[in-house]
Every structure is written in C-alpha cells, then in structure tokens.
Fold this protein.
Amino acid sequence: MRTIRNSAWRRCAALMMGLLVSGMLYAAGGQQAARPAATAESGYGTLRLTAGRPLETLNPHQQAATATADFLRLIQGKLYRFAPGPGGTGYQILPEIAAGEPVQVDDEGRVWQIQIRDGLQWSNGEPLTAEDVLYSWRMVMDPLLLNHRANAFHGSQVQVVNALAYATGDAAWDDVGIRLDGNTFELRLILPVTNFMLKNFLTGLPVSVVYPPLYEAGMNADRTQTNYGTSIDTMVSSGPFMVTNWIQGAEYTAMKNPYYLYADRVSLAGVHTRVISESGTVMQLFENGEIDFVELSSADFQRFREDPRVIEVPGRSVQRIVINLLSTEKPILQDVRFRQALFWATDRATSARISATIAANYIIPTTHVMDVTDGTLYRNTPEARAILTPNLGYDPQRAKELFDAAMADAGLDRISLQLAYHEGVEERRAVSEYLQEQWREIFGGRLQITLQAVPSSQLAATLRAYPNDDNAFELGWTGTGHNDFDPVSALAHYYSGTPRRKGPYFSDEYDELYRTVLQMPIDDTQGRLELIARAEEVMLRDASFVPVNQGLSFGLVSDRVRFATTDGWSIALGYGWKWAAIVD
Amino acid sequence: MIKYTLQRLVALALTLLVILTIAFLVIRLMPGSIYENTELPPRLLETMEAKYRLNEPMIVQYAYFIRDILGGDWGTSIAIRVNVPVWQVLYARIPVSLQLNIVALAIALPVGVLAGIAAALFQNGKVDHAISFLVVVFVSVPSFVFATLLQYTLGFRLGLFPIVYRASAEGFARYASIVMPIAALSLGPIARVARYLRGELIETVSSDFMLLARTKGLSLFDATLRHAMRNSLLPLANIIIPMFTSILTGSLVVERIFAVAGVGGLLVNSLNASDHPLTIAILVFYSMLSLLTILIVDLSYGLIDPRVRVGGAKNE
C-alpha cells in the first residue's frame, strides 16, 4: 500500500489532534479552585438544590435576584432570624447578633434600643462586634457606593431618620438616626413600629453584616465600588453556613459554620446548589435522585398532583391586569363602567384551572398576616371576606350591560385593546389567550384583544411610564410582592404618592384611607383591619385593574429530606432549608 | 498581502465602532431603569443613576462611553456579577464554551470528511444513501433537539452519561459529562462537512485529470485521496472556519440544556437584567469573533491556494 505523501493531510491530522487535546485539557482543568471544606465533621448530609439563575454576588448590599437572596440567607448573620417554633410548629424570631428583645424607649414606638451579643464570631474565627454591625449599616447606605440596597433603612415600614438623606448625599452620617453606645444601638425612626415589625425588619438581608476588613480592602481609589462578595475569597460568612465553593455560573456550596451561634440547631452538613435554568433538566435530575427539590411546572404538576410529597405554596402577589385609565387614544378606559365590565367578564375559576393558580377576585393576597400574635391571615377575617364579590366576580350578563352602556356613551361600535404579558411565562400566556377569547364571546365580538409578549423588565418599565406618556400601554399584566406581615404594605403601591407605580390609579377616597391607616396606633389591629378592608373595597370598585389570580407553585421534595416544621412550607420560613435534615 | 491585511484590519476596526455605536444606542434606548429594586425612592434612584451618568444627554453618555473604552475601561457588571469587570466575567465563561466547541469541531471535521469521502466513493450505493439520509436528518434538525434527545435517552433513561455538565467534577467524571453536549454540537457540522465534501468530490472525480490518474493505474480510492481531495479542500475551508463561529452561537441552547456555564446564557441573562456594560461586552465579543472569522477565511484562501493569493495578479 502506498503511503500518502501529501503533507497537507498530516497537517490536517495534527490540527485535529491538537484541537481535540486542547479541548480535553480545558475539560480536565478546573475553572476555579474550590476552597476545601473546613467543617466536614459537622452536621450530616448535603441538601442538593438547583437555582434558575447564577449568583450575582455574595454582597448583601448588592443582592437583587431571588436565587441569590435564598443563598445569602444561609450564610449571612442577622440581628434576628426566623426559626421553627417550639415543637416544630409555627415560627419564632430568634435574637442572633442581637442579645435579646429590642427595647422601646418612647411611647409611640419611634425610638428603640438593641443590644449586641458578646462573644460572636465570623466563620474565620474572628470576633463579630457591634462596630462591625455599625460599619455594615453605614456602608449599605453609603452615598459614594450607592449600593443596590441603599434604601435598606428607608423601607415601607421601617424608616430611620435621615437614612434616605444620607444615601443621597443630603445629610451627614451624624444626622442619621443610628447611634452606637458601647454594645447598644439606638434607632430613631420616622414612623412608629411594633416590636415585631422592627425585628422582622432586622431579619432582612440588606441590614445583615459584612466583614469590614475585606469590605475596605476591596474598595477602589475613589471609594465608589468594593469587590466585597465577588468571590469566596472576598467575603466572610456569619450565618448558619459558610461558602466553600463557587464556580461562576455553574454551582455553589455552603457548609455548616461551626462558629454560628445556633450551630446546634443546624442538622445539615451543607447545601449544594447547581445552576440549571432548563426546567426539564431539573425534573430529570430529581427523578434520577440527584437533587432533593424541584419546583413543578404546570405540566409536571398534572403528573405528580396525587404525590404526597408535593407541597403547595401560595404566591405572594395577586396577578392583575392594569388598565391605563390615562389613555387619550382609548378614552373609554377612563369610563369606570368599561373597566368594571372587564372585571365582571373575567372567569377566574377557569383562568385558575388553566394556569394552576388560585382564582383571585381580591387585591391583597392570602399570605398576608393581619395579627402576628395569633397568625390570623387577613383574607380569613370577616372584614376581608365581606368585600369579596360573589361567584369569584364573574357575571357575564352584568359585564355585558356595563360594556354596552359605556360603548354607547362613547359612540363606539367596536374597540380593540392591546394586552401586554410577560414573555416566557407560560401560565400568563395561557390565561391571556383564554381571556382574549372569553371577552370576545361575552361582548359579542365588539372587544378585540391583541396580545403582546414583553420581557418582564420591559413590561414593568412600560407600566411605570404613564407619568411621561399617557399612552404608554393599554392593558398589561403585573403583580407586586409585599411584606407578608403587614397588609398595609400591600396598599402602599396604589397610593397616589407612591413613586414608580406599575400603572395609574387615582382616588382621593383611597388616598385618605391609606393615610389614615398609617397614622393609626400600631396596636389597634381591629381598627387597621377595617380600614384596610375598606381601602381594598374602594380599589375593587374603581376597577383600575382586574385581579385575576394569585400565583401558586408546587414543590416536590425527596424522601431523604425532613423539614424542621410540620408544615413543610410557611410564610415566615419558606421551606426553611437551613433547619432541615437529611435522613438517608 | 500585508497591505491587504492592514486594510482589512482598519475596516474591521471601523465596523466594530459602528457595532459599538448601534449596541450603545439600542441598549440605552430600551425603556426602564437598570435598578430592579422597586422600592427605591425617586431621589435615591436619581442619585444612583447619576453614578452611571444615566442622567446625562445621550450624546454625552456616548462620549463618556467611547472615552472609557478607548482608555480600556469597559466597566463592571451591574447585575450578573456585580462589581466584577465585564471582561473578567467573560473570561471566566469563554474557556468553558471553547472547550465544547473545539472538541466538537475536532470530532466533526474528520468524521465529516470520512463520511463525505465514503459517500462520494460509493455514490448512489447503500453507503451513500445511508450517509445522505443521516446528513439530511442532522442538517435539518436543530442541535438543541438532539441535545434533548441525547439527554433523555442516554442520560436519563439509560444512565450512560451524566444528565448535566459537572463543573466541579474532575478526570473521567468531567469527560463523561461533556460527551453529550459535544455530541449534540457535532452532529450538525458533521453533516454539513459530509454533504459539502460529497458534492465537491463527485464533481471532481468525474473530471479529466481524475480520468488520467485512473488510466495511470491508481485505484479510485488512491486517486480520490491524492488528487481529488486536494482540489476539494479550498471550498471546504470556506465552511470550516465559519463553522466554528456557528457552533459557538449554536451552543447557546445546548449549554442551557446541559447547564454548561459558558458564554451562551450570559447574553440573554444580561439583557433581561439590564446589565448594559456586560451586554455590550458580549455583543463586542461575538462581533469580534465573526469579523475575525471572515478575515481569517479571506486570508486563508491565499495560504491554501496560491492561485487566488490576493494581489498576485498585479505582481505577475
């Protein structure tokens, strides 16, 4: 057999081998060295989870995504922390960095003192002091850094005096209502709060602690940026777990922190999270026994609905269709009868069935707690029940009458409207298509709905654009999450003085009710309840938006996981992974 | 050749400037704020946006943008990897994508060439029909469909390979976890190379010089390898180099399916998160890749076949 003389062939073959070998070398090489686990002897079993999005930071001052928040809750030390209640029922708020209960100094609840615990340690063994807490709080609202969470001390409930002015550079640090005397903080607030509200606020991630030496070491020259939390080497943990591995965009691991105050309550040895955005892939991993939890899609839920391992989790917001009542191109949207017609023409029961959600003819979701002393939910109170419309607010005949009256007065025979919905959210698309057809039938083809799929961030921006553009949108889906332990927070979004609202709503009556409830004594639960229910009723009557459904998700948990509470999931703890155990 | 190369490099720089300008305008004109935190008070939001000069007129923002880039400052990520320089974010992901694509290409080329030769040598025979059928399937079905099928059958049902890419695994476990993504990425290129080469070879085999080679006593196999293949290499180069770019683009979805932390998902994530500096860096990365590919293809003509060397006609 003749040899092949053509050297081009040999070069080609060499090139192929080179490509193959270099690719394999890439494959064999690690992307980032993992820090060896320091506490492998502590705890038992690793909880295996997935996240749809990669971690964007380990800096609690910059966190924005839900997946990141879930992980930071494992590793960040806080002044107070929600934990399972005694006997595995309910919940309690444990003082963690705080030494005990906050002390109310004035009569109204605007001045509070909190003592910091002695003897705490970071996960590297260094002492965690009150000065570290002070540094963390000052940095989160630093006017040069301007962190994503710079409003941490100016929330809807707890607003520290001059915190906002300091963050915007309009006040000095000495003017901010935070003082540290020895080991004791004094907080001066704009609005009065209860003991529970303050502790709940201090369970938040933005007000958790950062490790000052690394935070400072990571500062750039003009102190406008720090690289704190951009890798596992630029941060130190202080919570139940500590970060031991973070491969960018791929996976991250937290192992039990032996220095954590309540380490004896933590059963797990670690939590390992893989970043997987494809839901089908996650489902295969779960069925293969490679992960311990999967959030079921609508299709998968139908397959597992009878499975006792399925946990039902109500969403924290009501999905509603906002109506642009400022539209000059479609002035009929200003007619309350037309808007009410859309409300009554919405078959929420079917919509909920299509999307595996909860039918919602209300604004404030079922997750809101009215009375924290006994856990009474707002939606379960007689006042909240009394304002609900019959038949889940579905009355086609009434809808048609209202529609016909509004159209006649406007001199219109037909009208077409554009409904914008979240691109990529299958449930929203399905309900939108259903309503498109249903409304066309009920109104005899005189209402034509066209659908527009819009990315979530773009949709939010479009709904917020009404102050500058009367015709920014016609109809659009939205949902807004609130503080579960304060139904008043759900009202804030609709108050005309609230900035960056998703869609216009203007009502003097509503605004007055909102202002009144804010000024009521914070311990007058019944008085607040009546006003909240009245405000919700006014909103529903004005129909500037059509509530359709409340989100509902379904989690499937493997048999090797034992929850710390009997409920599995709760409003206060979520799934409470940090307190769970593995029972291989 | 040098002059031509320099001209092309200048054109490449100008093209990149146009791409940068368009990317800047498109991204800046998108509605919405870069801050997702809905509770930010307006005064604070204004202050925060001023930090990134978003309060300035567009032309001023553009001037700052170009000035920073010329100074080598492409900015830091503001949402995907907060406060990390954007190129650092990309550098962490590029090797992962390259690893898949280099190996996929290294497999696709020899297999595709062999399949093409086999199909041409056994033209209209069973082998040719079988290869042609597979070629049609592999060309017409997108790589993500193969990815899903492979994942479900070989990974989930049969358990032969890991269902997803294992970034933290080492040695054999890591090799095993990239088999399916590479297979999914290779099938399309294999088919394209085979189809292209088959067509070229069939045309060449029937030419006069091949008849001469056969009459000199060479077998069809030898004549094809020694004479026909060489003539078919030039047109093949036309598709091989751009194929690398297309595999890198096609790996976006495959990376997502197999949870590979490559460049793929970054662009979509950065767009959704309004991470403008990172989005622009990714767009520039892909643009550079395409522009360089085109440049290399053009220059490679001259290297592969001196007859088409640029400027050769003038020198003669």
Residues 164 and 258 of chain B are 5 Å apart (CA to CA). Confidence is low (pLDDT under 50) at residues 312-316 of chain B. The domain at 98-272 of chain B is CATH 1.10.3720.10 (MetI-like fold). Chain B has two domains: 2-70, 98-272.
